[in-house]
Amino acid sequence: MQDPNADTQWNDQLRRFNIIGEKEEIKTEEERFEIDRAEQLDKKTLDELDELEDEEDERVLQEYRRKRLLELQEKASRSRFGEVIEISAIDYVKEVNQAGTDIWVVLYLYKSGLPICSLIADHLRSLALKYPETKFVKSISTVCIPNYPDKNLPTIFIYCNGELKNSLIGPFAFGGMNCRFEHLEYKLYESGAIETKGKLQKPDDMKTYGVNDAADDFLRSSIRQSMKSANDDDDD
């Protein structure tokens, strides 16, 4: 069989009428070497690139250093949060809607004195430290939204690019006082609010609540909390 990559008039005519495909580009040994070298350099850190300074072309290394620095600067600019910021209604547009391009914002509404709000607040502080690329803000519910009902607390609104992407409203949405750090972490991960290096696995003990199941668990946890508080008072 005739080689379709051979430079012949017959093959040229066959290509002209689309009977055979275009001639495959055969890379030379030098071209293959350059491709392999580029792939290896692309995987190097800044320190590793410095060690290669005497071995490689300075211009090539400078380009790879510039590329790596830009990647680090971009990551640093996105990892600038790391805490839960208290905001008021006046700050809402600036801190939430105008947070920045592709910045995920977790807005937490709470009220002091509610045990479940304290629990969720503790989890969010830890999540803000673990995921500094996500912006975490909080506000007393009625300060941010006048007349916001206590029955809807705690509440989390999740935004990106000024748009509401998801929400968790009321104790049932969190699983009541049984909500662990890993449970809330997975809920935010599902919503896209936090970015992980690999796939985050759903905790084995995390329930998918129906309304009745959630209400039952919440009432049980509330009764236990009340009994504990009563016992503490009796001890005093």
UniProtKB/TrEMBL annotation:
It comes from Rotaria socialis. Gene3D superfamilies: Glutaredoxin. This is Phosducin domain-containing protein. GO terms for biological process: protein folding. Pfam families: Phosducin. SUPFAM superfamilies: Thioredoxin-like. It comes from the Eukaryota. GO terms for cellular component: cytoplasm. Residues 27-169 form the Phosducin domain. Belongs to the phosducin family.
